[in-house]
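Morning. Coffee machine broken again, so started the prediction first thing and wrote up yesterday's gels while waiting. Chain of 71 residues, entered below exactly as on the submission form.
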Amino acid sequence: MRKFFNFFLGALIGGFLGASVALLLAPTSGEELRLEMRERVQRLQDEVRQAAAQRRAELEQQLAALRSPQS
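Came back before lunch.
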């Protein structure tokens, strides 16, 4: 358990350091970067919602087929 905690802590600290360095060395300004990140997150959220809605429709169709009387 201790090894896992140490690994997790190291990965977390490494992630924060990597993200900080990436932001500091980014070729765009902070405002442009924030706008771009916001747009990417919005696109990702839209894609996830669309995929979830599609999967839900598929599952509802399967459920309706299972509930229908068998002939």
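The helical segments are 2-24, 30-67. Going to sketch it on the whiteboard this afternoon.
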